């Protein structure tokens, strides 16, 4: 068994060495996905947490798993031929799921469904989808900033994602769209929900709440940048202060998420003692 496992890991390393190397490079150099370094360790922890259930479940290999493995390998080949990184990376998750199903069976796959699915968060969104999300977020942040500045009696004119003030002009670029904090906060929300409550609807609600929270807090960041630029000049919208405001807004977003979750749990407390995550039955 250990020999087969070693051969499987070696084959995986050979097949995916370049894919994984490029994935790690993106985690290191793309701020939108720097959380990727945490995904695999967390997924392994979630799997380890289920070890007792895995040991108690019967091993019943399924031939369908081989079909999933072959389909994942075909996806890898298609990604290589089409130079499509997303397909190559998604095939990793498919290969892991198919291998579990082929070697251990459906019961083990159901138990490991969450850790395996969690791996999808390490994969950068395809550019065509990323751009479709980022630009509307830029406009929303610009509109939020314009409305806030007007409420503060600051003369402002907005043209698309460009905010024009009396003494400077601010462009809500892609980096300021809030998609970085949205992706990171979504990941954090999924993990937070997992450890907070065992009910699936509560975990889903916590993950869903991260979207409006990230959008609103980023809107306040744009508005705050505009107010600072109005009173202190263009330097307040660049450099250290701009970067620091990003971290500050993310902390504020998590604090707001924490507060909203506390209210949610107060309104809908769990019935009876909360079960440890590894004892939750998956239908």
Structure description:
The longest helix has 33 residues, at 200-232. Strands 1-2-3 form a three-stranded antiparallel beta sheet, with helices on one face. The chain is built from eleven helices and three strands. The protein has helices spanning 2-29, 36-49, 51-56, 64-81, 85-103, 106-111, 113-118, 127-151, 179-196, 200-232, 239-267; strands at 157-159, 162-164, 169-171. β1 (157-159) and β2 form a beta hairpin. The chain is mainly alpha-helical. It is globular.
Q: Give the terminus-to-terminus CA distance.
A: 29 Å
Strand order of the largest sheet: 1-2-3
Number of helices: 11
Q: Which band does the percent of strand residues land in?
A: under 5%
Largest sheet: 3 strands, antiparallel
Query: What's the overall geometry?
Result: globular
What is the element string, with H for helices and E for strands? HHHHHHHHEEEHHH
Radius of gyration: 23 Å
DSSP E strands, number = 3
List the helices and strands and how they pair.
Layout lengths: L1 H28 L6 H14 L1 H6 L7 H18 L3 H19 L2 H6 L1 H6 L8 H25 L5 E3 L2 E3 L4 E3 L7 H18 L3 H33 L6 H29 L16
Antiparallel strand pairs: 1-2, 2-3
Helix pairs in contact: 1-5, 4-5, 8-10, 9-10, 9-11, 10-11
Key features of this structure:
2 domains; 11 helices; 71% helix; disordered C terminus; mainly alpha; three-stranded antiparallel β-sheet; 283 residues
Give a nutshell description of this structure.
With 283 residues, this protein is mostly helical. The chain is built from 11 helices and 3 strands. The protein has 2 domains: 2-124, no CATH class; 128-279, no CATH class.
């Amino acid at each position: 068994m250990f020999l087969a496992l070693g051969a499987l890991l070696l084959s995986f390393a050979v097949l995916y060495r370049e894919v994984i190397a490029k994935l790690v490079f993106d985690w290191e150099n793309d701020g939108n996905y720097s959380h990727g370094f945490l995904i695999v360790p967390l997924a392994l922890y979630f799997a380890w947490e289920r070890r007792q259930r895995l040991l108690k479940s019967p091993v019943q290999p399924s031939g369908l798993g081989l079909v999933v493995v072959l389909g994942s390998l075909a996806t890898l080949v298609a990604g290589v031929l089409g130079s499509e990184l997303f397909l190559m990376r998604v095939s990793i998750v498919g290969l892991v799921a198919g291998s579990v199903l082929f070697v251990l069976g459906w019961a083990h796959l159901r138990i490991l469904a969450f850790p395996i699915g969690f791996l999808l968060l390490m994969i950068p969104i395809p550019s065509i989808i990323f751009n479709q999300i980022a630009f509307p977020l830029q406009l929303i942040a610009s509109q939020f900033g314009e409305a806030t500045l007007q409420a503060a009696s600051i003369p402002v004119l907005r043209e698309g994602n460009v905010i024009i003030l009396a003494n400077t002009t601010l462009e809500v670029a892609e980096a300021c769209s809030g998609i970085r904090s949205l992706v990171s906060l979504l990941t954090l929300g999924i993990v937070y929900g997992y450890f907070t409550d065992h009910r699936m609807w509560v975990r889903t609600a916590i993950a869903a709440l991260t979207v409006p929270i990230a959008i609103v807090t980023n809107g306040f960041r744009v508005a705050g940048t505009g107010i600072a630029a109005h009173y202190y000049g263009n330097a307040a919208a660049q450099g250290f202060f701009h970067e620091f405001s990003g971290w500050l807004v993310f902390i504020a977003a998590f604090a707001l998420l924490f507060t909203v979750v506390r209210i949610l749990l107060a309104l809908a407390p769990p019935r009876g003692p909360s079960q440890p995550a590894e004892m939750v039955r998956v239908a």
